[in-house]
Amino acid sequence: MKVLLLVQGQLDRRLGGPRLPMDLASGLRAQGVSVAVESADTLRQKTHALPGEPWEVLLGRYVEAHGSFDVLDFDHLPFPLDPAQIPIRLSVARVSLLLLHLADMRLPDDPRPLVRMKKALQPWRYRWQQEGQIRETAETLRRAGGVMVNNHRDAARLGQLGLDPRQVAVVLPGCVQAERAALEAVAARPKARPPVIAFVGTFDFRKGCLDLVKMFERLSAAIPGVRLRLLGTKGLFQTEAEVRGFFPARLRAQLEVHPQFSPEALPGLLADASLGLFPSYLESFGYGALEMMHAGLPVLAYDVPGPSEFVPHAQLFAAGDVAGMVARAVALLKTPDLLPAVLSAQAGEVQNLSAEQHAARTLEVYAHWLRHDTAPHG
After folding, report:
1. Residues 303-317 pLDDT 10s
2. CA 343 to chain centre
3. Using alpha carbons only, what angle is made at residue 20 by residues 295 and 8, rounded to the nearest 5 degrees?
């Protein structure tokens, strides 16, 4: 089998978006599959794209230069394709973040004055932009021969859109086994006192950054000296200073900000932490929560698509329930006897999740759809 993967962002698995497809490429190659991986930039470069040329034309040129492919697996956000115009037998739209959920929920507002002023002056522009994104997502997914999602709530939402359930596959990702083993190796390390609370992810509004600030304020009042360690914050806010600016001055000495880190450094950064928070409002999966769980941290998350697949139900809270999450966090930090049952429940949820199993299951889905001669939705 020969597969072409189209990836969102740069071809760097240390970044959030490309990680899953790049791990998938490695896993597929280990099973004898021929895999090419391209980003929007590398595809344009290799096909000598002219300004404004559609993706379908570039992919046709790419196939002419590199030979035929059995499967085109593309991230639906940067590549709103019409597979009927591409000479590849099976097109698979991969959902990295399902914007259709935005029709049923509201993300936290950006509180920055300039952004608030623009929204107040031109609310229609932001509304139209979001509606356009939702409409384009629906059209792209309907046209694809198959749709791959990372959680069952995304699949259910696509069912509401009218997609045939046989054309939607739920395949849960996971960490590469070697990285998972390195995280598990630090689980029994001594914990810092006062306790350290960790968050792994970019510092932005979708990820619940404003809720993290509120939680830290309340946790500091309940547990003097508690520290918050933010790992991988670089995204919407590029610098440590920008992130620190969201927190009260009196708490900044108890705050650690790591805009970036190498995968090899993560186990050490989590080793002495006692608890993980993951208050994201919308996810496809939630690697940060999974990594903290592998490192032996009890993790509390919002009950949203992605983390709800593997975080135990007792540790999930309605999106925005700052008070509920803080109350549970205080109980776990002050009552060590609660931890064995919590950690046992977590271990049961994540034991079968790995990047290698994700690749094996994905290959099965490709083969199934190819055998059944999947045709694009139309």
Report:
1. 999 999 999 999 999
2. 23
3. 135
